[in-house]
Amino acid sequence: MHARTLVAGLTVAATAYAPLASAATDSEIQQLRDEMAALRSDYETRIGALETRLAAAQATVEQSTPVEPAPFAQPPLTQAGTGSPGNEFNPAASLILTGTYGQQSEDPANYQIGGFIPTDGEVGPPDRSFQLGESELTLAANIDPYFSGYFVGAFEGDNGTSVEEAFVSHVGLIPGATIKFGRFLSDFGYLNEIHAHAWDFVDAPLALQAFFGGQLRQDGLQARWVAPTSLLIELGVELGLGDQFPGTDRDKNGFNSMMAFAHLGGDVGFSNSYLVGATVYRSKANDRTYQDLDQFGAPVTDAFTGDTEMWGLDFVWKWAPEGNSVERNFKLQAEYFHRNENGSLTFDTDGPQDATGNYNSDQNGWYAQVVYQFMPRWRFGARYDHLDSGSTDIGLVRSGQLPSSAFPILADHDPRRTTTMVDFSPSEFSRLRLQYAWDQARFTDTDDELSLQYIMSLGAHGAHKF
Amino acid sequence: MFRFYVVAGLLIASFASASVHAAVNVFACLPEWASLAQELGADNVSVYQASSPLQDPHRIEARPSLVAHMRGADLVICTGAELETGWLPVLMQTAGNRNVQPGTPGYIAAADYVDRLEVPTRLDRAEGDIHPSGNPHVQLDPHNIAKVAAVVSDRLAKIDPKNATFYAARGQDFQTRWQAAIARWEQQAAPLKGMRLVPYHKDTVYLIHWLGMVEVMDIEPKPGIPPSASYLAELVDKVQRDGADAITRSIYTDPKAPQWLSEHTHVPLVDLPYTVGGTPEAKDLFGLFDDTIARLEKVRK
């Protein structure tokens, strides 16, 4: 149909412009006129035929006889697409604007999660006073009939930029399968793959901060499969470069991080839904350095080399009366993380006291949170975080080579934090939040953290997962 | 041990797929499309209704059960026109079902096949949650149902060619009954012409247009924005000044504001079923229109 229109259009155009191109004689002009007349009558006949068919089709609908098969070609383009041809295929774009006002009783510069090797990632509450958060630009579109693409770029408040996600996905290689490759937020547990603007609190749970430095990102490949059952059973694997904490770039062929997960989910009546998941993850680190103080209180750089093995469990329960979440709804969410790190720890790497010994730690952490929307647009939430620095075996200390005070950040500690928040969403596209936290992540001193936050979304309407 | 799990998994999978293979699996986003699919497919379809009449169709969670049913769907029928934009794309992306992606025979967006009203000429979120493709609540004009029914019959025949003649006959039978019902409704509802309504949300536009009623104003100041107390107080004056025969609300919306306005203006409040199952009387598509008209007639002076 399109091809025919195009050919006809070209013919008309060619015919129309032909006289300009040549010194036309009367006979040629007459010939052209005849041709145009022929074309016109031809088209009038065709249009007439089409009108008759259209009328017939409408009549058949009204007379309720089976109609001609409706075309299932792409639905008509919306009004938005009527600009210049180059713009019509523009991807869906959205921009998230966020920012905070923060007040803390302790100096944010000395924030640490006691008992855990620092991650070099995003830990702690947003800084004091007014802070511009991440501005997130999302672009998404189908690439062709086989692939679709998704990009999220983040402009940090301090003018840095980063590629949060940039992946290509393919649906249905085998029934139920989805494949993703590029950079993406890992599907470890429940919250990790959710962008910060969709979180229920200003900051990530301590467990995510301690084990991943905020969120685990993979540069790699993810394959997931949904079983053909009415209960949701989903299995997936991820293979990746594994250069982000707890792994490091090891300049090796193959892959450095591997993850596998299983989800199970369903409904209890129309009002309740649940999703449970289990994840295992492993990666390797080579010379993963971090800053600490030595036994004399002087700054020192230590490094871990070895294997990290993690597993996690996650659980989400959502309730809304008759499934209608507009008025009131409730969400319970909890995750448990366990990490084992086994390898060697180098003290004062590249320094005068340079020494290496075995290192083995078993650590865990969990959080549980509830969020209740008690009236339209208003929600209240509470969260409790608990980490256990567990048992850490440092060879250099066990052998007596160094005192345990040479590794102050690895001292035994159970960081805890209690957070409450209330937020107001004037529309689906805007949210204002007030949050208060009692944070005992440091070895001593409780940090009282007050945060005000705005999250605004411009452009394409986002869709959020369960 | 590993082998045991694989075998067990395959057994579960094959059992589950065998048990559902008998019929065309239809995933209907909303109750009206579930009812239509059931009407047109009868025993040859197995219809999964993804939402209840008490759920706001704009705001449905992409819950796990929906992903699981999207996975096994042969035909997806939704409204389109961005009504399901907050949840349907998630299902499409995670369920791994390529047979029901937009643009394939397995996907019907009903609003694509009807003449949409209120297509905005100016797209600006300052106007509230507006839909670039126009008002999406197309099911309340029965002529639209007829148009969508023709598409559904056709797609069922494409997806399940063995039973093509069944779907054609069934479709024809439905269209005959439906056209007769439309004639009856239009006659019955003739006195409703010119009736002045104050709906809560702009979700009865097609009904109002069909029956020649008048939408005086909406209770929502802008689509998707609930009215504040001061705005409601202003509405009392406006309703009394402009005159209205009824305040209406669809069953999934919060009754508080319409009730308050009704009490303060003495304009009767009518709860409309909005979709199949919205009221006990609206048990199928025929009942939906019977009951909607009956409820409006009751307050028509």
What is the share of helical residues of chain A? 10-25%
Proportion of residues in extended strands of chain A: over 45%
What is the CATH-assigned architecture of the largest domain in chain B?
3-Layer(aba) Sandwich
Spatial sequence of strands, sheet with the most strands of chain A: 1-3-4-5-6-7-8-9-10-11-12-13-14-15-16-17
Number of strands of chain A: 17
Multimerization state:
heterodimer
Give the terminus-to-terminus CA distance of chain A.
Answer: 42 Å
Query: Termini distance of chain B?
Result: 75 Å
Assigned CATH superfamily of chain A:
Porin
Number of helices of chain A: 4
Which fold name corresponds to the CATH topology of chain A?
Porin
Percent of residues in beta strands of chain B: 5-15%
Total number of distinct structural domains of chain B: 2
Task: Please describe what this structure looks like.
By secondary structure, chain A is mostly beta strands. Chain A has a single domain, classed as Porin. Helix content of chain A is 15%, strand content 47%. Chain A is built from four helices and 17 strands. Chain A has a 16-stranded antiparallel beta barrel. In chain A, 32% of the residues are buried. Chain B has 301 residues and is α/β, with parallel strands linked by helices. Chain B folds into two domains: 2-184, Rossmann fold (3-Layer(aba) Sandwich); 190-299, Nitrogenase molybdenum iron protein domain (Rossmann fold, 3-Layer(aba) Sandwich). Helices cover 45% and strands 11% of the residues of chain B. Chain B is built from ten helices and eight strands. A four-stranded parallel beta sheet of chain B has the order 2-1-3-4, with helices on one face. A four-stranded parallel beta sheet of chain B has the order 6-5-7-8. In chain B, helix 7 links the parallel strand 5 and strand 6. In chain B, helix 2 (31-41) packs across helix 5 and helix 8 (229-242) crosses helix 9. The radius of gyration of chain B is 21 Å and the shape is globular. The chains are: A mainly beta (466), B alpha/beta (301). The interface between A and B is large, with 65 and 77 residues.
